[in-house]
Design brief:
This protein is of the alpha+beta class. Helices cover 38% and strands 15% of the residues. The protein has a 3-stranded antiparallel β-sheet. A hairpin with a 2-residue loop joins strand 2 and strand 3. Helix 1 packs across helix 2.
């Protein structure tokens, strides 16, 4: 079938990460990521029995937690 031209391109599609990938990126345990999801601090999508986190939502979460130290 021919591809439609109005479909979302690969670069426009949100990138979803697994809990394990997020934990690895943040250098924390998977339990920490599950706690952040359960508390509502980190947005996630439930897919079956597992969760997926949008890369944009992870960036937003990390930006909100950014702390500037005094010099």
């Amino acid at each position: 079938a021919p591809r439609r031209t109005d479909t979302v391109t690969e670069s426009q599609r949100p990138r979803y990460l697994t809990v394990a990938e997020v934990a690895q990126d943040m250098r924390v345990s998977t339990m920490t990521v599950y706690r952040l999801i359960k508390s509502g601090e980190l947005a996630a999508v439930r897919v079956g029995k597992s969760y997926r986190i949008r890369a944009d939502d992870l960036d937003t979460f990390l930006d909100s937690r950014y702390v500037e130290t005094g010099s």
